[in-house]
């Protein structure tokens, strides 16, 4: 099946940018030109490719073609850079765009180190995503790679282990004295307020269940910012889990203490990426593996 | 129109939690009981209330009823607390849940101070949301209040100004020397890489346009974490805007400098909340206004 490259690029831009208008701005054409190209591609393959919602989303066949478009773009840009001779410089034209989904804790701790000294001509499009959404973004071609706790390879992707992030149960000393005078008993864990990052964050629940051997259902605050999370733990809003790296300063000053000394949760992280070899993607993989190896267990 | 309180609670839980299963877990009933209640309510009002997607979303009439349900719940809980005599204590039963949307920069800087010493029996459900989504969440009853740059009151809400957050254009010294040897010219701003928080973040674009009097279209990295954003600015990935509070340390150490000394963007912030007087909501408003007044201009 021969597909029109311009139509594929229009499809990918709509799904990446979320609207026909934003896709048009990126491609330097009118929204109606984008719309025509996507419609033409839909007629060519005989299937609806884009759900016209806000933001636009891929249908199943749309996801297959969006990913194809992204892979072709990556290969084309690397080939252009090679032809230009000087690596990824201005001669290669538009910058190579690497879309990567990263879980929030990695993004606010070890992941940025992987991007230090990134070659000019490469731009990163990071997405802070929960677990369950990562696989979908890889499948539908929205992202090229992901840092995720999901060990099972998404179809068409390679996966490699990065090491484990260690999470500690943390609490301000005053909160420990108020809610846990007898330690982390089931009764105390049932009543003491907990901080969770958001609804998808089950770390606290798993840790508590592991400590006392059954599920507990305490009052839960949702605080979806790593900075705010640590600040509100220290301010005594409740107990919660943070990575040992994020908690190091607060533990050193005594602002936070272990709620259950000697206990922790290790969460293994994985690098999933399209099974496609290009210099840009290989370089990113090497950077991510290196940064992870200095911070994860 | 008399509406069944249990059915309203089921509707609100489905929209807040996103799935019938999670709503059932919160209400301690089976998913099929939740489904029956929502269906019964839909038959009662003769309209579809919930789009059965993942996550579930409110239709227009669903949003009206979800907000009603949230308002009734807030009033009921405060009344129960008053009856119990001792304020928001365990006698009042389930904790009072305050869902609040907060823009990312506020959430990682001044907003947590508003929650220090929050009364027991109140749990916060914070959502880090972009501008354009905040109004929708207020309208459909998903959040009770929001910190937002939107000055225009959402229907049924009150709005009050909180002050302005000042943003500076920041860059690592080496990046300034490399890309801006002649200062922030239009040609330099067209080529120098930029960091933006995500696609909804137009600060950098507006700042550059204000500096040179026309739009520029440089290569853009998207870095949706305040911690990672500052770290990658300092590592030299590009220039970008950060609030003066967030940038203070890096400016003091010289890790970052002003890309255009003496220029900034002031973004006024507003507190929007349901126009409903309850002690819990009044207390939250007072806390937010107080925290904002010590940090914003």
UniProtKB/TrEMBL annotation, chains A, B:
**What is the name of the protein in this document?**
HTH-type transcriptional regulator LysG
Q: What SUPFAM superfamilies does this protein map onto?
A: Periplasmic binding protein-like II (SSF53850), Winged helix' DNA-binding domain (SSF46785)
Q: Which domain of life is it from?
A: Bacteria
Q: HTH lysR-type domain location, by residue? A: 1-59
Q: Which organism is it from?
A: Cellulomonas uda
Which controlled-vocabulary keywords does the entry list? Activator, DNA-binding, Repressor, Transcription, Transcription regulation
Picking any one GO molecular function of the record gives: DNA binding
What family is this protein classified in?
Answer: Belongs to the LysR transcriptional regulatory family.
């Amino acid at each position: 099946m021969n597909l029109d490259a311009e139509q594929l690029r229009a499809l990918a831009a709509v799904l990446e940018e979320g609207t026909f208008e934003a896709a048009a701005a990126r491609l330097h054409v009118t929204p109606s030109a984008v719309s025509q190209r996507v419609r033409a591609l839909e007629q060519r393959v005989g299937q609806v490719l884009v759900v016209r919602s806000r933001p636009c989303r891929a249908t199943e066949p749309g996801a297959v073609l969006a990913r194809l478009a992204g892979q072709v773009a990556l290969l084309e840009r690397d080939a252009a850079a090679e032809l230009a001779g000087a690596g990824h410089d201005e001669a290669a034209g538009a910058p190579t765009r690497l879309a990567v989904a990263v879980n929030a804790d990695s993004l606010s701790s070890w992941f940025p180190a992987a991007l230090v000294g990134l070659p000019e001509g490469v731009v990163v499009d990071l997405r802070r995503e929960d677990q369950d959404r990562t696989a979908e973004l890889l499948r539908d071609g929205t992202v090229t790679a992901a840092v995720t706790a999901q060990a099972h390879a998404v179809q068409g992707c390679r996966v490699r282990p990065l090491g484990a992030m260690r999470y500690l149960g943390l609490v301000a000393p005053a909160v420990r004295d108020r809610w846990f005078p007898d330690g982390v008993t089931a009764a105390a864990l049932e009543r003491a307020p907990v901080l969770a990052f958001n609804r998808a964050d089950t770390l606290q629940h798993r840790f508590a269940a592991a400590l006392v051997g059954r599920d507990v259902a305490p009052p839960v605050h949702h605080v979806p910012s790593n900075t705010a999370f640590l600040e509100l733990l220290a301010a005594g809003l409740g107990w919660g889990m943070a990575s040992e790296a994020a908690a190091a300063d607060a533990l050193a000053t005594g602002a936070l203490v272990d709620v259950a000394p000697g206990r922790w949760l290790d969460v293994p992280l994985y690098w999933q990426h399209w099974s496609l070899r290009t210099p840009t993607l290989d370089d990113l993989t090497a950077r991510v593996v290196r940064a992870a190896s200095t911070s994860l267990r």
